[in-house]
Amino acid sequence: MLTPWVQIDLAVLDRNLRTLREALDSHTSLMLVAKANAYGHGITPIARQAARSGVRWFAVAYISEALQVRAACEDAQILVLGAVAPEDIRALLDHRVLPIIVDEAHGHALARAARAQGHVLKAHLKVDTGMGRFGVQWQDAVGAYGRLSKDPGLEIVGLCTHLASYEPRKPSLGTEQMAHFFEVEAQIKKQANGPLFRHVSGSRAFLYRSDWDLDGVRVGIAAYGYGTSERGIRAATQPVLQWRTGVMQVKRVPADFPVGYYSTHITPAPTTLATLAVGYVDGYHRALSNKGFVLIRGRRCAVVGRVSMNWITVDCGPDADVAPGDEAVLIGEQAGESIWADELARLAKTIPYEMLTSIHADCERHYISAPNLPLSPNTSLRSRS
Ligand SMILES: Cc1ncc(COP(=O)(O)O)c(C=O)c1O
């Protein structure tokens, strides 16, 4: 194809989810973080497959994403990690979506909106133990819980925090944050009428700290196949997404041939250049100018010159047998070679999360179904997300 396209292997997702599930005790829920269009993988097909693979909990950033998950999974538990506006109360109630209370005023505002509809809203309370983002400050959390739990419009059914960092072999803020969380939890437990569903760990803490699993782990990047290559961790997963495009033009060039805007690359020797259909508009990072690699006919070809809006140029080498229409792998594997998002992220000085979520939502996404688990008729094998 002469436009960039994404291949998502739902069989790999299924394997990853089962691997993660097997690492957990039966009383801990695997909560799949499916925000940002399921980390660029397409929220609806990912939610459908995850539900088939046994996932019962989903975490998203916005109510709009929660509604997409609800449409895909009628019986899932869905948690919105961002601050839901009180105006969205009907959507929360009608679609059985759990919001997170990010501060006391937010909690009371949601409760007022729920009461106005004649309902009691179930919600989780977030404690800010050091992330400095959403949540009631941990020093105020016990008092805030006491007041919020007396509000007749609210039923607090969960308690959570988010870790800013975790390093397995060094002191890190995460360890301190957990001490604050456990302190708050112990106090709140004394006041609570029933059990609270407690969840803290993202992928990194999950991989190293089974003692922090509690009632649920909110796993994102590890489910999509990244961040699990270090030795000694609980579960190893594989990348679910590959990104490909086509060669549009091939040219044989001499030495000293300038390439791209501002001629930031000059060929040191005669070679073969290929121009590919992908650019920064599609999410191919400009920081990969003169740094990135692609695979063509199983060979690594360096990105030469600047990444431009719609095209990149790569050096295929003097003896390359490359032709227009050939497939180029931007992220993925070809003939035993591979380039994954974490390698590109290192070259671009960013993180695989950004590499994956930068891939434009308009890039066609093709889904490979999991064996013995056919996709439902509503999920097109060549759907646009
Ligand atoms: C609140 C929250 N929980 C969990 C996650 C999942 O993190 P990870 O992808 O590292 O597992 C995120 C991701 O950004 C998040 O914001």
Describe the model:
Helix 6 (104-116) links the parallel strand 5 (97-101) and strand 6. By secondary structure, the chain is of the alpha/beta class. The protein folds into 2 domains: 10-219, TIM Barrel, CATH 3.20.20.10; 241-339, Lyase, Ornithine Decarboxylase, Chain A, domain 1, CATH 2.40.37.10. It has helices spanning 10-23, 35-40, 43-52, 63-72, 89-94, 104-116, 141-149, 173-191, 203-208, 341-347, 352-358; strands spanning 5-9, 29-33, 57-60, 77-80, 97-101, 121-128, 136-137, 154-160, 197-199, 216-219, 241-253, 258-259, 265-266, 271-276, 293-296, 299-304, 312-315, 327-334, 337-339, 364-368. The protein starts with a strand and ends in a 17-residue tail after the last strand. Strands 2, 3, 4, 5, 6, 7, 8, 9 and 10 form a 9-stranded parallel sheet that branches. Strands 11-14-17-16-15-18 form a 6-stranded antiparallel barrel. The protein has 11 helices and 20 strands. The longest helix is centred in the middle third of the chain and has 19 residues, at 173-191. The protein binds pyridoxal-5'-phosphate (PLP). The site of pyridoxal-5'-phosphate has 11 residues, from helix 9 and strand 10. Residues 33, 81, 162, 202-204, 218-222 line the site of pyridoxal-5'-phosphate (PLP).
